[in-house]
Design goal:
The complex is a heterodimer of chains A (386) and B (452). Chain A has 386 residues and is an alpha/beta fold. Chain A has helices at 2-6, 9-18, 22-29, 44-49, 78-88, 105-117, 134-155, 161-183, 194-204, 209-225, 247-254, 282-293, 307-324, 339-342, 345-354, 375-385, and strands at residues 33-37, 52-56, 97-101, 122-126, 235-241, 258-264, 329-335, 359-364. In chain A, α8 (161-183) runs parallel beside α10 and α9 (194-204) packs antiparallel against α11. Chain A is globular. The model of chain A has no long low-confidence stretch (mean pLDDT 96). Chain B is an alpha/beta fold and 452 residues long. Chain B contains 19 helices and 8 strands. Chain B has helices at 17-21, 23-39, 54-59, 67-76, 81-90, 98-112, 141-148, 167-170, 175-198, 204-227, 237-249, 254-272, 297-306, 325-328, 334-347, 350-355, 361-373, 394-405, 424-447, and strands spanning 43-46, 63-65, 131-135, 157-160, 283-288, 308-313, 378-381, 409-411. In chain B, the strands form 2 sheets. In chain B, strands 2-1-3-4 form a 4-stranded parallel β-sheet, sandwiched between helices. In chain B, β3, α7 (141-148) and β4 form a beta-alpha-beta unit. Chain B is globular, with a radius of gyration of 21 Å. The chains are: A alpha/beta (386), B alpha/beta (452). Chains A and B meet through α6, β4, α7, α13 and α14 of A and α7, α9 and α18 of B.
Chain lengths: 386, 452
């Protein structure tokens, strides 16, 4: 990790973000085992407890999708097509294991197909129930136990309760640090940009949790102590929806009259917003956390007696987000062919508009080449905020 | 059920007399729904849940209607467009499921009309539901869509989960029984939900009878599948898409069983007398996934022009492979019988996935077995613009068939609802070129000493 050791804080995050596999490859060369996983649902705590390095598999908005065309239809989620495409092109050739998940149709089907064409010594597909009921939590815990057993066989050792609790504590610490980082975005102007935040969060997904925690602590100290590096803009934006994993996109938004102050996405707050509760059986706590506390529309929320109540059940936490970060604009980001978020479009609009918050909805193609035409839409939206 | 026959038309493309009569069941479901509305009886809008939830709801006297089926119906009579346009006007992306957009547009019109079926609604329309029964199996649309309907319908949504582990995970010690156990406890909650909503208790004896009737109907429908292995094909895809309605939607209905007995007899008679569904069968193809409902005559065209019979099709609409008797020994709880039935559907081809070192077991591995059992010359893959998850594994399936069994595939893009997406002329040109490919691979299989 020579380069990263030379830099700290935001500069280090930028280096990790720009060379995402570098640290994992170094660790592999040192004899560590690296696992790639899809979305927010595979429990990283179990991987860490076995000294395995969890790496979040992402696509590449800079890379035209070519190889995946022979395996995944063009009508499917572009993000997962991109993940598969760059995987087939060797971007994740250092992985010792693959952890797929039933996060959504795209993640699920791509997981199965990935296992056919990119074989690794270890792989597991984690089924995730859709309804967050008590029996579903128990079922999910059973599946996590199978996951644990699979990794134990691969790692050649067992996860003890103490070790799992230590790992949960490490990851909870990371969640707490991310929330502390988000606190720095509360002032106006926020103390760090959306692009800086994205670089830091993605970096934490590409390195061991201990290193991620150090990075977060460095960034928090640096941002608190640096001269103000941002400026006030008309819009304080909440980004909701499909993930954004490229700063070209956040830069474009932030150069169009907005400061992004909070993101409810799979690369934003969702994986970090709640700690795993301490439970007598830590596996139960892990299962309950991932099924009930990771807020993604892929998990069905019990319907309310009225539409209004239903919206509150599903999106009530966003009211708190909007209030806490003093948001005045919403961007609903839909990666084309993302059903999970696509079905929410009119409802999320209804909900935010009931809070007098304007909403911009864009279906986009997960490609930096297709970003520029969006600039005028953000600029026009910013004008409505002014 | 009426016995009058209709002449074969380019539009219907059915070769079995019983297939021509099967529309009766679709009309029966719609009619029952409308009658229930008039009587004030409870109506449920339901996804196909592979019998997981339907039997319970029906045992509690809920009249179920199926918006997916309604989408296919509206498309087949080319009356989906106004619904699709309304869905778009409501703000739903036009990349969503075509059935869903048809239903959302319809539900918006229903709400405009104060919950009463709009005049001139295709097929008499869908009556306003008391609840909606979504499913986590197959695709996200099948619960997200019902959740979205909360904008127009003040009816609660229940989402039924169905475990979908990976193939290797399915075979991990004890996992199957844990999955079944989860399903049973989940169904108990569903029963409690319905009992509270309807203010009535479930009659478990009645449910058990319905479940046993379902097992019986599905077994008979499976026997028809077995008959279809004969050469020439005694029935084809266009027949199947009609006769599937009774076993998929009404397997508990004794009338459906009686109907299937007649389907069986008709198909058996053709097999025994070596009568093919199409006049001059030269190629036997598998089809996947849903067909272009609006242009089913396409299949007649390729039969006539190239001698192509769709010998087998669309795995997920077929009855289950029978459950081994020992698995059902001592199982008397109807909820467990249901769980085992639905779970079987989604896991039945896992052994095939293992055999070929591939996956997933659902949506994909079945076609490897089909290719052998039905001696298929090719796969006609039909990626759907607006039913994408059913499409996700198609190219992978094509690749695996070619690699493992020397069975080639052709991809023709289209849609279940949106007729603008399907170009029949272009599709026929592709098939024309593909015929040579099938000849080539037939020769490769011959040289490799394969059975067909």
């Amino acid at each position: 990790m020579s380069d990263e050791k030379k830099s700290t804080g935001l500069a280090k995050a930028h280096e990790i973000y720009s060379h995402r596999s570098k640290r994992a490859r170094e660790l592999k060369s040192e004899g560590k085992k690296v696992l790639g996983y899809f979305c927010c649902y595979p429990p990283v705590e179990i991987m860490t407890a076995l000294d395995l390095i969890p790496i979040r598999i992402l696509g590449d908005m800079d890379e035209p999708i070519t190889v995946a065309d022979g395996y995944l239809p063009t009508v499917m989620c572009i993000f997962y097509r991109s993940c598969f495409d760059v995987g087939m092109k060797g971007k994740y050739d250092y992985l010792d294991g693959f952890v797929g998940s039933h996060a959504c149709d795209g993640a699920e089907r791509t997981s199965h197909i990935w296992r056919n064409y990119m074989k690794t010594p270890c792989s597991f597909f984690l089924d995730v129930p859709h309804a967050a009921t008590s029996e579903a939590v128990r079922f999910f815990k059973d599946q996590m136990n199978y996951f644990k057993e699979t990794l134990e066989d691969f790692a050649g050792k067992k996860v003890t309760t103490d070790r799992l609790q230590e790992s949960i504590a490490l990851h909870n610490k990371q969640r707490g640090l991310v929330r502390e980082l988000y606190e720095l975005r509360k002032p106006d102007p926020p103390l760090l940009t959306g692009s800086e935040t994205l670089e830091v969060l993605i970096s934490t997904m590409m390195i061991p949790v201990e290193e991620g925690n150090t990075l977060l602590e460095e960034v928090i100290q640096e941002v608190k102590n640096r001269p103000l590096a941002t400026r006030k803009k008309p819009g304080r934006m909440l980004v909701w929806g499909s993930l954004i994993d490229h700063t070209a996109f956040t830069d474009l938004i932030e150069n169009s009259g907005f400061n992004i102050v909070v993101e409810d996405t799979a690369t934003g707050a969702r994986p970090f917003w709640h700690d795993i509760e301490a439970t007598e059986d830590p596996m139960y706590g892990v299962a309950k956390h991932y099924l009930t506390e990771v807020k993604c529309p892929r998990t069905f929320t019990k319907s309310g007696a009225t539409y209004k109540e239903d919206l509150e059940n599903r999106f009530g936490y966003l009211r708190e987000f909007a209030k806490y970060w003093n948001v005045n604009a919403i961007y609903a980001n839909i990666i084309r062919n993302c059903d999970i978020h696509g079905y929410e479009v009119p409802s999320i609009k209804d909900y935010f508009e009931s809070l007098d918050l304007p909403v911009l909805i864009i279906e986009q193609d997960y490609s930096t080449a297709a970003l520029e035409p969006l600039r005028t839409r953000f600029q026009a939206f910013a004008e409505t905020i002014e | 059920m009426g016995n009058e026959t209709k002449p074969k038309t380019r539009k219907s493309g059915k070769t079995l007399q019983t297939a021509r009569e099967a529309g009766y069941f679709g009309k029966k479901m719609l009619k029952k729904g409308l009658e229930a509305m008039e009587k004030g009886a409870p109506i449920g809008w339901s996804m196909v849940t592979w019998w997981q939830g339907e039997l319970i709801a029906k045992a509690m006297d809920v009249n179920l209607v199926f918006p997916e089926n309604y989408g296919a119906f509206c498309a087949s009579v080319r009356q989906a467009e106004p619904h699709l346009e309304r869905s778009a006007a409501e703000g739903y992306p036009n990349t969503l499921c075509g059935y869903a957009r048809n239903c959302i547009g319809y539900a918006a019109m229903l709400a405009d009309n104060g919950g009463k079926v709009p005049e001139g609604a295709p097929g008499g329309g869908l009556a306003k539901p008391k609840f909606l029964m979504g499913s986590g199996a197959a695709c996200d649309a099948r619960y997200k869509w019902f959740q979205a309907l909360g904008r127009y319908l003040d009816a609660p949504v229940w989402t039924l989960d169905l475990p979908q582990t990976g193939t290797n995970e399915f075979f991990m010690a004890g996992n199957k029984e844990l999955n079944i156990s989860f399903m049973v406890s989940h169904l108990r909650k569903f029963v409690a939900f319905l009992e509270e909503l309807l203010g009535t208790k479930l009659d478990y004896d009645r449910l058990r009878e319905m479940v046993l009737q379902t097992y019986k109907t599905l077994e008979l429908a499976h026997q028809v599948d077995l008959l279809r292995r004969a050469k020439p094909s005694p029935m084809v895809g266009t027949d199947f898409w009609s006769v599937m309605i009774p076993h998929l939607y009404l397997p508990d209905d004794p009338e459906a069983y009686e109907f299937y007995q007649r389907v069986y007899d008709e198909v058996k008679q053709k097999v025994d007398n070596n009568i093919g569904a199409i006049p001059n069968e030269k190629y036997r193809m598998m089809f996947s996934e849903l067909p272009p409902w609006h242009t089913l005559g396409f299949f007649d065209e390729i039969a006539e022009q190239f001698g192509i019979a769709i010998a087998i099709e669309s795995w997920n609409y077929h009855p289950i492979l029978p459950i081994p008797e020992e698995e059902l020994d001592g199982v008397t709880d109807p909820l467990e019988l249901i769980a085992r039935l639905s779970y079987r559907k989604w896991t039945e081809y896992n052994p095939v996935a293992v055999k070929y070192d591939t996956g997933p077991g659902f949506f994909m591995a079945a076609y490897l077995q089909f290719a052998e059992d039905y001696q298929a010359d090719g796969l006609l893959a039909h990626p759907l613009m607006s039913c994408r998850p059913a499409t996700y594994t198609l190219l992978h399936t094509r690749n695996a068939l070619e690699e493992k069994l020397k069975v080639p595939g052709v991809v023709i893009e289209g849609d279940i609802v949106d007729l603008r997406v399907f170009n029949e002329e272009e599709a026929i040109s592709k098939i024309e070129a593909f015929v040579e490919t099938m000849d080539h691979y037939r020769e490769l299989r011959r040289k490799a000493g394969m059975a067909w």
